[in-house]
Design a protein that fits this description.
With about 290 residues, the chain is α/β, with parallel strands linked by helices. It is about 40% helix and about 20% strand.
Length: about 290
Amino acid sequence: MSTLADIKGVGLGLKRELIPQIQSSYQQSAISNINFVEIAPENWLGAGGKFAADLAWFVERYPIACHGLCLSLGGPDPLNIAFLKQVKTFLSANKIPLYTEHLSYCSDIQNGQSGYLYDLLPIPFTEEAVLYVAARIRQTQDILEQKIAVENASFYATAPISTMREIDFLNAVLAEADCDLHLDINNIYVNSVNFNFDPYEFLRQIPKEKIIYSHVAGHYQQTPSLLIDTHGADVIDPVWQLLDEAYALFGAFPTLLERDSNIPPLPKLMREVNKIAALQIKNNRPEIRIDKGI
């Protein structure tokens, strides 16, 4: 059974089109730097047939992290308890040690009806919101009977009522909720361009002890001052440099390459996976030993 300690080295988001490519290349040196994979539980709950068999194949061979999409930690409606109980059962059944979610919201109530907005929207950066979101994170942890990690989100507008900086809001939530941090390096960079702040200053204020693992990804430049977090392009040099600085500050924590659209063949993705591994080794990553399960 995988444990949290097995989430280490370099990871890759497990998209359906990558499954046969990874399976056919398994145990080949060309993909040896894939040490763990990440899935969205919403895409796998209740899976049967071939999908269930594929998941079982990965459970036996790789540590898996679950990164949720629809919990809506900052949303106005009550947490979806039934969904969380499904997630708890799913994590246990598939030996998955880690569940993370976005520090954002994706639901709303209108005319007494709750619904999903199909986007991740920013929470107002206020003391009131800190207490509200932290209480929902604690409730989630109580239901799951384990700590979760929350991811710093990308965003394109701030709520007019915000009274705190993003970094102060993030750190206050982490402290109040007693949860871990899923650090997204690309999101720091995207927000720094969109809202004109120094990403390195932001990074230096991250609590090292809270980092559980990180994401690195590509984005789309709509204008010089507006970046869109698409996960649909190669990682750019400034984001690589920010990741390198994060390793220098905090050590070579586990890092996953996110690619959600325009997904190239696995050999091309491995160039970026291998670059993450090289940066980790440069920053004194301990040797990675993975039990392949066979």
